[in-house]
Each structure stands twice: as C-alpha cells, then as structure tokens.
Amino acid sequence: MSSLEYLALMGACLLITLPLELVFSARVYRRWKVLIGSLIPIVLVFSLWDIVAIARDHWTYNPKYVTGIHLGDLPLEEVVFFIVIPICALLSYEAVGTVLEFFAKKAKSRKGGHDGA
C-alpha cells in the first residue's frame, strides 16, 4: 500500500457515486450551498473528535500509509474522508429517493388509469 492509496480510494468513491448525480438526478452537486452547509458540521465535529483522540493516544496514523501532509494535527486523508464519505452517502440517499419517487408515480398512474374505465 502506497501513501497515495487512501486518497486514490477516496477519489474512486467519488467516481463510483458520480453516476448517481448524473443518471438518477440526485441533485447533490447542483445544490452546492446545501452540500457545503451539510458538510461543515460533519467535518468540524469529526475533526475535533479525531484531534482529541490523537492527543489522548487513542489512535494514530501510520506514516507509511498517508502522504505526510497535515491540516493541523490531522492527516490530509482523514479530512478528505470526512468530506468524501458524506457526499457519497448524500448521493446514495438522494438517488434512492429519486428512484422510489419514480416508482411511486408510476404505480399511482397505473392505478389511476384503471379507475374510470
């Protein structure tokens, strides 16, 4: 495992979930203000949590597996994780909602089409 694999994995997560925005109209990236507003508390809370855990020696990051770039006490990869994974979760959630809405409308139109005939 190289020092860039963690970042490559985060990039792969974004690439794999990108079709959810494009094909299923998840509208996560299109509503970028809402996305940023959703990410800020997540990044802040979990970054603080990690900083405290690192300071208390609850966990560490092996230098072999990170780039060595730190944002404060946190490795860059950890901050990227706190951004990427919630985006992937939001994309998945919104795409599932879009698909469920589609099937609900389709079922309703079928049911409505047979009432008066």
Automatic annotation (TrEMBL):
It is found in: Membrane. GO terms for biological process: carotenoid biosynthetic process. The lineage of its organism: Bacteria, Bacillati, Actinomycetota, Actinomycetes, Micrococcales. The chain crosses the membrane at residues 6-24, 36-55, 79-104. Keywords: Carotenoid biosynthesis, Isomerase, Membrane, Transmembrane, Transmembrane helix. Pfam families: Lycopene_cyc. It comes from the Bacteria. It comes from Brevibacterium aurantiacum. GO terms for molecular function: intramolecular lyase activity; lycopene beta cyclase activity. This is Lycopene cyclase. The keyword Transmembrane applies. Residues 12-94 form the Lycopene cyclase domain. InterPro entries: Lycopene_cyclase_dom (IPR017825). NCBIfam families: CarR_dom_SF (TIGR03462). Pathway: Carotenoid biosynthesis. It is a multi-pass membrane protein. One of its GO terms (cellular component) is membrane.
